[in-house]
Give the backbone structure.
Amino acid sequence: MDDFMQAAIDEARLGLEEGGVPIGSVLVHQGRIIGRGHNQRQQRGSVVLHGEMDALENAGRQPASVYRESVLYTTLSPCPMCSGAILLYGIPKVVIGENRTFLGAEEALRQANVELDVRDDAQCQALMDTFIARHPEIWAEDIGE
C-alpha cells in the first residue's frame, strides 16, 4: 500500500466516522498531496461533494499546468461527474482503490487517454460493502438511483 492510497483510505474512514459515504480521495502533485477530501453529501447536504470533488475543492484554485502534472487517488471508481472534472482539468492519471462495488465512468476516462491504475484494494472494497449493506438507501441516492 502506498502512502497516497492510504491517505485516500484515511479520508474515506473519516467520512464514515462523520456519518457519510466512505469514499476518499487525494490530489498529488510532484509527490506531494495538495488536496484531500471525502464524500460530504450527507454531512454538508451537498449534491456535488463526492470524494474526488472535495479533494479538488480543498486543493484550491490551481494553474492548469498543476492539474496536468497531477495524479488523483480515489478509493472508488469515479462517477461520471467526478470523471468529468478529471477530464475538464486534464488530470492524466487516476489511481482507483476498487471498482467492484461501483464501476464509474472508467471507459470515458480511458477513451480520453487518462491512465487508470485499478488496485482492487480489499480495504476499499470492505468499506463500501459494509456501508452499502447498512445504508442501501443512502448509497442509491449518492449514485443517483
Q: What stands out?
A: The first strand starts at residue 24 and ends at 29. The chain has a mean pLDDT of 95.
